[in-house]
Amino acid sequence: MDHGFPAVVSPPEIYGSEVLTWVLVGLLLYWVAVLSLRNGGYLPDYIGTQGPILTFHTKRGRALLDRLAQPKRFWRAWSNLGVGIAIVVMVSMFVFLIRAAMVTLSSPQVSSSAVRQPRNVLVIPGVNDFLPLAATPGIVFGLLVGLVVHEGGHGLLCRVEDIDIDSMGVAMLAILPVGAFVEPDQESSKAASRGGQTRMFAAGVTNNFAITILAFALLFGPVAGSIAIAPGAAVGGVADSSPAADAGIEPNDRITAINGTAVESNGDLANRLEATNGEQVRVELNGEETVPVDRALLVTAATDDGPTGLSAGDKVRAVDGQSVATERGFTDAVGDNERVTLTIEPENSGERTEREVTIGAAVSIVDDEPLESQTGPTDETFVITHFDGERVHDYGSLAGLLEDTEPGQEVTVEGYFGDERGTYTVTLDEHPRTDSGFLGIQPQPGTSGISMSDIGVQLYPAGEYLGLLGGDSETRFGPVADTFLGKIGVALLLPVIGVSGVLPFNFAGFTGGIQNFYEVQGALGAFGDGGIFLLANLLFWTGWINVQLGFFNCIPAFPLDGGHILRTSTEAIVSRLPINATRGMVRVVTTTIGVTMLVSFLMLLFGPQLLAG
């Protein structure tokens, strides 16, 4: 019963613009306090200010760095590896930002998704829409580890390359660590070779990537292996005014039985509901309490201006006069009929209306593709009722039939544009991603562009997420998630993956109540549920933050490490050219690339809003 809900009953947390406003007010007051202390001379010498940011300087630790730097050949080899990785990442980041900016400018309506909202660039829980406040401890820990190993790498390579260090320290915005730094002595830094300088600048990102690999290796291995899925169907969301909401079912509950029959998993819930007759069922929650739920067929998601005219929150009471309260009852009542009369109870209305609709798979027809060559260009929704002679009730059944086709196969497609029925013979093309045939359509959800549920819960894919993190569970990502690097790539997307529609929820660690969907097993079970979930959260965010720091610092623009590596690399290349190389030539190259990166980044963030304005 996995459906996309337009609105769910959620725990009372404040996100987005409201939190951002209070954060900005707090920062302003904090900045005023910092300025007052600085102007009054109350700050000690080891504390500096850069706007609202306090920098804490120290000379302690240099002796430790000297001892750690003794195997210089090892550290130089390690950093040379990092230089190669950094250059590859730098080129990739340059190409990625430019292409992303071009896509944003060419398709601003597509690019203005929530992921690209300026506040969602900030890794601040509660302000960023995808990072709940419950993730704060893991994010802060990961950030601290990232800053320490990054700047520690710079400091260590300074001593390896005999570059003196004036001071080291951290930068704080109130109580939040926002940076760390190592201040090399300018004279000894200039005296170092270009290779030595390049290795020093690359050391930080090298360490970040190494920590990423270590954290995810531990998470994907013993830690995820000690976590299992708890029995029951995981409730991730509850639709407003739904039977489940009326019965008091809440997000993070587990449905463990229906009418006394155990529910073992998410998939099992649909089977139990379909096997149960009657308009009321008894639902056991968390293996503890049982509540009665009066079933009603609720529209949980609907395409805007869809072919049925229904909206989320509407209830389907009857099909051709036959009362229905379940998805199975709806399908049985429709049968082979292509057009039926639905009795609808609109949201928050006791009145009922009737509407004649087409039942099938609602799709948009893609230009210049096989189906469009037969129907002609159109922006109207097409509801497919038969595919190659098989009755189609929803897009899921159509997708299953399409998977069994081959490129070049000739098929018959029957359906409706509005009230007009058409039959088309189509030769399928090659699918761009699979071996099956390609019809050339964009799907709309569920049945005729609507998704329905007879109790109104949206299930959280607990097993899917655990499988993606290395646990013993199946995933839909196939070979991509079977490799270590593939798992890292998917893990980086988990905090925003719900936006793509591939999975219904974002994943921000084992926080916010979803621990109820899991249980601890194996040898690490001695640490208890709280200890294992805490460790998993710390490892997830440490890996996530460190790879972000590594990629960000590889952007070839000053004052980032990528900008310094670009400068030293450009100097090395220009010095070998048969021309009279000057510092100005190097500056032109680095400035041009840096400005291009900055403009691309700003267009990525603000381009949609500027074009829309």
From TrEMBL:
Q: Name one GO cellular component term.
A: cytoplasm
Gene3D superfamilies in the cross-refs: 2.30.42.10
Give the main localization category: membrane
**GO BP term, pick one:** membrane protein intracellular domain proteolysis
Q: Where is the PDZ domain?
A: 221-289
The record's SMART domains line, in alphabetical order, gives: PDZ (SM00228)
Q: How does it sit in the membrane?
A: Multi-pass membrane protein
**Per UniProt, which keywords does this protein have?**
Membrane, Transmembrane, Transmembrane helix
Q: Which InterPro entries match?
A: MBTPS2 (IPR001193), PDZ (IPR001478), PDZ_6 (IPR041489), PDZ_sf (IPR036034), Peptidase_M50 (IPR008915)
**What Pfam families does the annotation carry?**
PDZ_6 (PF17820), Peptidase_M50 (PF02163)
GO MF terms on file? metalloendopeptidase activity
Query: What highest taxon heads this organism's lineage?
Result: Archaea
* Listed name of the protein: PDZ domain-containing protein
